[in-house]
Design goal:
Structural class: alpha+beta
Largest sheet: 5 strands, antiparallel
Radius of gyration: 14 Å
Number of helices: 3
Number of strands: 5
Shape: globular
Mean pLDDT: 81
């Protein structure tokens, strides 16, 4: 997997973004928990981005073929697909978002405001 370069926002025209992973649903099994742990570590090592969408290829590779990965202007969402041993999840499993513009809550943790006061 090629790590996404940490871009200088002044060269891209986008304001800086600070990536973080929010796990919104409990993992369905140990394999999914492991994938999410690896993804969280990857995102933590690639926090500063000019455009969060640059992380999408790595998210796809780390999560594997059982997930639909989509992007918005400041987020990447992860939706589990149906497999031979698991049904599709009706809701998003996780999201990589911009800490500077969003406040989202992990399924295991309290809501934490990350916006500047």
């Amino acid at each position: 997997m090629n790590p996404s370069p940490q871009s200088d926002p002044s060269t891209t025209g986008f304001p800086a973004q600070e990536a973080y992973l929010v796990i919104e649903q409990k993992p369905r099994d140990k394999a999914e928990r492991s994938r999410l742990t690896k993804l969280r570590q990857y995102v933590q090592h690639h926090t500063h981005q000019a455009d969060l969408r640059d992380l999408a290829p790595a998210v796809r590779e780390l999560m594997g073929p059982g997930y639909q990965i989509g992007c918005g202007s400041s987020h990447i969402w992860i939706l589990p697909l149906a497999g031979s041993d698991m049904p599709a999840a009706p809701q998003r499993l996780a999201i990589v978002a911009d800490r500077l513009t969003t406040t989202l809550q992990d399924c295991n943790g309290p809501r934490v405001s990350t916006r500047l006061q």
